């Protein structure tokens, strides 16, 4: 170890993620291209580490290149309709062959246990089975897709019991009907269906595609599901990237909190995505942009109504309507059905690359729904986009709430010079600072 101090600092920096992820359910899906590229052993190491950290892991694998290879060996030409494989009897046999071989390879990768390797003392039990019920896609545009299917149901109850007992679930791109037929499914469909059925906290696609980029070539690090839909409509992504993104949006809109698209070309990409702030892939989250947005002049009345009770009891500094109207560009609001349920303001101090978050308020009737957390994350993202590196708050009542979310106590001297001159020593507000 060349730099022990750096190692300790790194370990401390990932501790919050370890605490946050323990006991959570992650569905991790990867294509057959990853196996063909020889990246399976490293991914098994990383997933075994997630398992060791107390994360419940469901693995879903794809087999497209392996099916194509089996078809070529049998001199059978693959047939497609609108990018969907037409699975006849011969192709189904190839799909079964490919899925079976991959399952054995994956189980072997998780069975490694040599000393001085990441898998030493892992002892992971990988469980696979008939957890996925499927139905045929049927006839589309006059073309019978035969044994190509779509997921109908995932046996979430059985999978949860296996995960609770410490096992890792392995799902193949095959599903079965109540009549005993097998159907060829897409890995993406199985992964999304499993994540939704299990109420997974994350769906992670480890992909053969490159990092998603916008039309200007800038890397896309984070998208709301609504922004992702706009990206898909713009139609500038490759078909493969668009396919993954479409499934991420479907997962988020169906209740999965976070979906990720992570290229496997970088060694340890899954770990870097999960345990570093910026990650190395694209994260898609379900955030209704119509409900969490910058405030407009029409929102002034709703903001006043929201903050008046807190001004009356001294929690917030009193702001007149005129002041809020002048400063409305600093505010963001949460709106549901035309009613303002939460707000906050961000006042930048560009010279010090600092900003004050003020007036963070959520309607008491909905405070248990996590809107305060959503507003905080929104304001942090807004600050980062403006080049702000440190966020501070002044509070008399809610210091513990902010401390639990990464803020640390500081003195008045830590504030920007202009803000120090405006500090109200009679209120004796606590100063809390967070590095972004």
From TrEMBL:
Which enzyme class, named as a word?
A: transferase
Subcellular localization(s) per the UniProt record: Cytoplasm
Q: Is this entry keyworded Phosphoprotein? A: no
The main location class comes to cytoplasm
- Documented EC number(s): 2.3.1.1
Recorded hits in PROSITE patterns, A to Z, give: GNAT
Q: What does the record give as its pathway?
A: Amino-acid biosynthesis; L-arginine biosynthesis; N(2)-acetyl-L-ornithine from L-glutamate: step 1/4
Q: Which UniProt keywords apply?
A: Acyltransferase, Amino-acid biosynthesis, Arginine biosynthesis, Cytoplasm, Transferase
Any one GO CC term of the record: cytoplasm
List the Gene Ontology MF annotations in alphabetical order: L-glutamate N-acetyltransferase activity
Q: Which reaction does it catalyse?
A: L-glutamate + acetyl-CoA = N-acetyl-L-glutamate + CoA + H(+)
According to its UniProt entry, one GO biological process term is: L-arginine biosynthetic process
What sequence ranges are listed for the domain N-acetyltransferase? 290-436
Keyword Manganese applies: no
Report further notes: In bacteria which possess the bifunctional enzyme ornithine acetyltransferase/N-acetylglutamate synthase (ArgJ), ArgA fulfills an anaplerotic role.
NCBIfam families listed in its UniProt record: N-Ac-Glu-synth (TIGR01890), PRK05279.1 (NF003641)
- Protein family membership: Belongs to the acetyltransferase family. ArgA subfamily.
Name this polypeptide is given: Amino-acid acetyltransferase
Gene from which this protein is expressed: argA
